[in-house]
Inverse folding.
């Protein structure tokens, strides 16, 4: 563990003012979000405030991203609720204990992954699958908040169960009117107003700052009206309830073996999703700021953040998109901004927590819905569909799986879609007949370019590594070319794109060489990479090959062309 982070060795004093102001602004703006995400996870609302303190400090100290902010996030919240609601009643002591176990387990797994240098596992999910998972989760989050607007209680978290409960039990009341009004205000501030800002930069900056401040102002105004006018008693408005000042006792009870076994898979999924989301945000921010991110340091920081979250509030945490966006927009330059935000949150918890007891749940639900709708990445899924139908199907299938079958099944489908897509592409390699561009040494596809060829020589380029899954495709294509060109005397396999050859492929090449020799043809290889050559030298092919191994396709063209002439 590092006791002095890189960003503090030494700390650039010119960033002090920016970091302090950014920390204060971020702490104030994420209060409604922290309360809302705790409720979304089925935990007491103050848990969202508790886990915004020590976990945030731990990540700021141990992580490598300079501006990423850690705390309660929508995806981990909905995953917590989806996993634990069938096991215990939300809000009860048993439920809180299970949530703490979930956070503890995922934290331990993240730290173990960091120690084993497994940061590369964040790439296990492709971007289309990640976009589909986040979009599906966002839709589940939206549906889960409808109960606070229309006063119904679904029995399950799936989309079908929520919609059925909404249609059969939902009703319009004061909560509905207040929530829909808040939703309209927040929606206009998020999507309409930014498109119609004045041209003057100074005025636009002030309006933008006000728009970011609007969710907090809306919560404060609604809370003041509810408390002063006793609207809860008069109109039946649902409120957050009692928030006691002070911090919970820092405790970390070890989970039972039964709880651990039941939550092992959810722990792993939570760690994986947290890893993917955290690394995606950290890398995007680092690229924009020309900084470097250490994947394993990120895992370590996020792991310790979840362990401290398990002991201080019982709620899993992660790198939040909206929280980080607020931190960056507020002017954060180093992780000191996150530490200042945590200290401000501590001050609020110690002194002002009871003021938020009268926050209407409908307003918090509106803020969650607005944030979740911003997570639905239709653009990414549309681009994936346009780029590659397989990626589009993977993204859409993951999103539908999450909505209809649940988060765990959805992410499993996403991984399966990713693997299936990769295997399909690898098993159907691109194979091209190539020729030489006149006046150069470059070889291109004969179907795309005007090239020169040799009448009795076939130049075949294989654009994929060779393994047992694509051998049939390579053999079939070669046999087709031989059938259409009976005058061929030489076959040159250009292997510039072949990065490895497994044992089955090596045997296939040896058998192919013998078959061609028996038919009066010669098999040649060109542009064989060093590691591939090392592998083939240990196979029978290298010793039985009657053709030659050329350094380049152009060497093969010149040599065989001269022999033909």
């Amino acid at each position: 563990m590092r006791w002095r982070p890189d960003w503090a060795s030494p700390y650039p004093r010119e960033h002090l003012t920016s970091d302090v102001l950014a920390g204060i602004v971020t702490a104030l703006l994420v209060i409604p979000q922290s309360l809302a995400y705790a409720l979304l996870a089925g935990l007491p609302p103050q848990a969202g405030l508790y886990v915004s303190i020590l976990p945030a400090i731990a990540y700021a100290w141990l992580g490598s991203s300079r501006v990423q902010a850690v705390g309660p996030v929508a995806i981990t919240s909905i995953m917590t609720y989806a996993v634990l609601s069938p096991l215990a009643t939300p809000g009860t002591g048993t439920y809180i204990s299970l949530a703490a176990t979930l956070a503890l387990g995922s934290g331990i797994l993240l730290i173990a992954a960091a120690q084993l240098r497994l940061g590369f596992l964040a790439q296990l999910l492709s971007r289309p699958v990640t976009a589909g998972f986040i979009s599906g989760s966002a839709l589940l989050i939206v549906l889960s908040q409808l109960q606070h607007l229309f006063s119904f209680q679904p029995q399950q978290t799936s989309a079908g169960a929520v919609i059925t409960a909404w249609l059969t039990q939902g009703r319009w009341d004061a909560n509905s009117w207040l929530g829909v009004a808040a939703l309209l205000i927040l929606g206009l501030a998020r999507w309409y107003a930014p498109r119609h800002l004045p041209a003057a930069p100074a005025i636009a900056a002030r309006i933008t700052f006000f728009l970011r401040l609007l969710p907090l102002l809306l919560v404060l105004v609604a809370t003041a009206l509810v408390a002063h006018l006793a609207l809860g008693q008069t109109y039946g408005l649902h409120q957050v309830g009692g928030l006691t000042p002070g911090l919970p006792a820092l405790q970390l009870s070890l989970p039972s073996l039964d709880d651990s076994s039941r939550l092992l898979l959810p722990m792993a999924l939570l760690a994986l999703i947290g890893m993917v989301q955290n690394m995606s945000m950290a890398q995007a921010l680092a690229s924009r700021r020309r900084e470097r991110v250490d994947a394993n340091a990120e895992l370590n920081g996020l792991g310790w953040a979840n362990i401290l979250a398990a002991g201080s509030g019982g709620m899993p945490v992660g790198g939040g998109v909206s929280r980080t966006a607020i931190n960056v927009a507020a002017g954060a330059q180093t992780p000191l901004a996150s530490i200042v935000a945590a200290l401000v949150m501590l001050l609020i918890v110690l002194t002002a927590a009871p003021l938020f007891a009268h926050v209407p749940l409908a307003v918090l639900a509106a803020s969650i819905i607005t944030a979740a709708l911003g997570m639905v990445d239709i653009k990414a899924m549309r681009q994936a569909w346009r780029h590659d139908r397989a990626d589009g199907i993977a993204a859409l299938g993951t999103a539908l799986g999450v909505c209809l079958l649940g988060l765990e099944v959805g992410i499993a489908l996403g991984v399966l879609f990713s693997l299936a897509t990769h295997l399909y592409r690898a098993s159907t390699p691109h194979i091209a007949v190539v020729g030489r561009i006149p006046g150069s040494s470059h070889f291109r596809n004969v179907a795309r370019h005007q090239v020169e060829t040799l009448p009795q020589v076939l130049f075949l380029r294989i654009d994929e590594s060779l393994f047992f899954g694509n051998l049939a495709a390579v053999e079939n294509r070669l046999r087709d070319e031989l059938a259409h060109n009976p005058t061929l005397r030489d076959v040159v396999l250009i292997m510039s794109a072949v990065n490895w050859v497994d044992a089955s492929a090596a045997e296939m090449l040896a058998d192919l060489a013998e078959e061609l020799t028996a038919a009066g043809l010669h098999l040649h290889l060109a542009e064989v990479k060093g590691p591939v050559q090392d592998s083939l030298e240990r196979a029978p092919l290298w010793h039985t090959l009657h053709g030659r191994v050329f350094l380049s396709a152009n060497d093969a063209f010149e040599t065989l062309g001269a022999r033909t002439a």
Observations:
- The first strand starts at residue 70 and ends at 71.
